[in-house]
Structures are given as C-alpha cells and as structure tokens.
Specification:
The chain has 74 residues and is an alpha+beta fold. The protein has helices at residues 33-38, 58-63, and strands at 22-24, 30-32, 51-52. InterPro entries: DUF1272 (IPR010696).
Length: 74
C-alpha cells in the first residue's frame, strides 16, 4: 500500500492524499507537478520515472490515512 507522503521532497509544498497533482517513482519518492516537470519526470534519488500518484479518498483514506512524516529536506 502506498504511503501517500504529504509533501514534495524538492520544494515542500503540501500534497494531500485525496487530491491530484503528486508524482511518485517506484520507491514512492514524491514530488509536486511543477517539480516533476523541472526534473524532466525523473526521480533525482533513483533516476526512476515519475508517474501520477493515484488519489486516496473517502472511506479508503479514513481506514488507511496518509503518512504524516514529511520528506522535504530544508
């Protein structure tokens, strides 16, 4: 199950689990759309392809909430 990380690792913008606009690699590194575009849709950590992260909403989000651990490094 995806962690649904709450922020962009590059710029720190919030990425709610129930909204579109997040991009992930196969290791779940997470970036916002502008940062993914700036990175040419390649993860700077593993060089893997960044893909649209599916949204998690409603009862699924209640039962399986997103992680609260932030990954943006200042």
């Amino acid at each position: 199950m995806l962690e649904m990380r709450p922020d962009c690792e590059r710029c720190g913008v919030d990425l709610p689990a129930d909204e579109p606009g997040a991009f992930i690699c196969s290791f779940e590194c997470t970036f916002c759309a502008p940062c993914a575009e700036a990175l040419d849709d390649r993860c700077p950590n593993c060089r893997g392809e960044l893909m649209d992260r599916p949204a998690r909403a409603g009862e699924a989000l209640v039962r399986h909430p997103a992680t609260t651990q932030r990954y943006h490094k200042v």
